[in-house]
Design a protein that fits this description.
The structure is a homodimer of 361-residue chains. Chain A is of the alpha/beta class and 361 residues long. Chain A contains 12 helices and 11 strands. In chain A, the strands form 3 sheets. In chain A, strands 1-2-9-6-5-3-4 form a 7-stranded mixed beta sheet, with helices on both faces. A two-stranded antiparallel sheet of chain A has the order 7-8. In chain A, strands 10-11 form a two-stranded antiparallel ribbon. In chain A, strand 5, helix 3 and strand 6 form a beta-alpha-beta unit. The interface between A and B is large, with 42 and 42 residues.
């Protein structure tokens, strides 16, 4: 069992990583306050894991209620959030309850915002079941729902009390979802860790084959990398923006295409290639590294260009609503070399459009 | 001009109290970051003050947008909140914008939650225009919207950067709204300050006549009392609960009657009388003090019993959803003497029902 601490003073919390956690006989998450919890999950995950998790919690004497939401990014909305509040109130959950997110990034983000907002804040535990949520969205306290005009535009910084990662969940994860998680993994390597990028080039097939040791190492490394960034910049005032490589382009794709049609990781993969081409055009990135990144994304089963039906000019209006925009000026995360990135404020709109076209070529 | 500081470390902020602030030539609120702001107000307040406030801000070079919501507690909802997000996104407001609440408690609570949640938090300024919001809801960082199953159930602790109180707003405030504010003022006196209670007994007519000196002193004193409590217990873990005298009963009235039919202060006034009767029944409160409180509330034009159409038994289900409930146990704020109150966990349901009936007698 691996344990990583996200160091945030009184808001510090552990990430526990192991296989078989749902089946273990010992209680594995600390419900130290109150005696009730609300499990938030979706209709894909519920048949697979809900009974196991609920039974385990009930054995420890906790009153458990549940709310099962429809699966999909298009349901990460204020309307669906309200269903969680209604369930909490209908079952008279008080301020000492715990909300447990059992699912992928959509469930984690939405349940996390519910926990941040219900009675102005209740205890929250993340149980991520997808690769993407295990390496990224469950760690760091960013919660949100989408708005029709922009992704993750409504939310809160709200840290969980604990993150519990059962590696066995990956056995039931659809391949396309697995690839989507690999996009965020490759992102960490590009922005923070050249050695990890090399490791991924060597071990990608082992990951795709769900080889347990490779998976455990890879997920732990990503959680470590993210925990370090979050510890320095919890509220996204500086370095944390680097984690957004490819996301300004990617969120534009997700919003334009309709939430759920392009998976988050797919949009981020295409967005990373666009960012890489932008920086190559600035003469600051080696062609050989462009090709290494492209090759790794392709091996991971990810797109390296945007949707055909989306014109390059259609990106800009969405990108201008990015949360990194300050006083109407776009800011982009751009890699410097593999293993290092920075936030760039002086990217011209022409350059953005050209970088999108480069990927289509 | 009066200035009070709410002392909360890096989240400290000033409350500025004076007449004529909207008409003054000098800028009166510090828009120190960014160059845009969104004014959130309602259709009653907009014709009265929106132009003056907007013109003033535009003179200082700030880009101003506005969203005008319908007036009333029934619009303090997730649906109306979404209108604010849509307005912010449609006008491409970025994370360095400022949301300014111009209105009463409904506008302040809703705009405050919008500020807490938009892009996970933007700058927020309170410009309260009602007596109730000036003495209570604009200070202390509690933001929220209502849910059909419970008042203020969805929200955040989110401190404003500044609170700006123009006493001239009270000249246009309907008398019923003014009385509603007096309920919270009387509440501060009962729970925290016996001398202030005596002052109110002496000066109530001066307040009702909008005598400027009396108003300025009264509002400043309430802001001081609240700021002291909030400084000790920002996140409502202990002493801050005392500010809820009458609110557990009162929220039940507001929810049962339909938001907006009983004004918040009216419900709190009736709720305070119920709490007073509960503690009198426990043999811990003098009959003479019961009569003093009742007399002051009546002079202020406030109800001293609940709605006739609401049976005493109808209160309990709503009261059990109160945010002070822990592990299914009701907690009530009860006065000890005039000027002192405490949180009581051992009030039987029978006693609650009896205290409601006492008020109807």
């Amino acid at each position: 069992m691996e344990k990583i601490i996200v160091t945030l003073g009184e808001r510090s919390y552990p990430i526990t990583i192991a296989a078989g956690l749902f089946n273990d006989q010992t209680p594995f998450w600390p419900l130290t306050c109150g005696d009730s919890a609300m499990l938030v999950t979706n209709d894909l995950i519920a048949p697979l894991y809900l009974d196991a998790v609920r039974d385990k919690l009930m054995k420890s004497g906790v009153k458990i209620d549940q709310v099962i939401l429809p699966d999909g990014e298009q349901y990460k909305s204020l309307t669906v959030l309200d269903q969680v509040f209604s369930a909490l109130l209908a079952q008279s959950h008080s301020r000492d309850t715990t909300i447990i997110a059992l699912g992928g990034g959509v469930i984690g983000d939405l349940a996390g915002f519910a926990a941040a907002s219900y009675q102005r804040g209740v205890r929250f535990i993340q149980v991520p079941t997808t690769l993407l949520s295990q390496v990224d969205s469950s760690v760091g306290g960013k919660t949100a729902v989408n708005h029709p005009l922009g992704k993750n535009m409504i939310g809160a910084f709200y840290q969980p009390a604990s993150v519990v990662i059962d590696l066995d969940c990956l056995n039931t994860l659809p391949r396309r979802e697995f690839s989507s998680g690999l996009a965020e993994i490759i992102k960490y390597a590009i922005i923070l860790d050249a050695a990890f990028f090399k490791w991924l080039e060597t071990h990608l097939e082992a990951l795709l084959a769900l080889e347990p040791r490779a998976l455990a190492y890879c997920i732990r490394r990503c959680c470590e990398l993210k925990a370090n960034v979050v510890a320095i910049d919890e509220r996204d005032q500086g370095q944390r923006a680097l984690l957004n490589l490819g996301h300004t382009y990617g969120h534009a794709i997700e919003t334009y295409m309709g939430y759920g049609n392009w998976l988050h990781g797919e949009a981020v993969a295409a967005g990373m290639m666009m960012a890489v081409h932008a920086v190559r055009r600035l003469g600051q990135f080696r062609n050989a590294d462009v090709e290494r990144i492209k090759a790794l994304l392709l091996r991971a089963g990810l797109p390296v260009s945007g949707p055909e039906e989306m014109a390059p000019e259609a990106y800009l209006p969405h990108m201008m609503r990015d949360k990194k925009v300050i006083s109407g000026r776009l800011r982009l995360v751009l890699p410097v070399v593999i293993g290092k990135a920075e936030v760039c404020t002086n990217v011209a709109n022409d350059m953005v459009v050209a970088s999108i076209k480069d990927c289509q070529a």
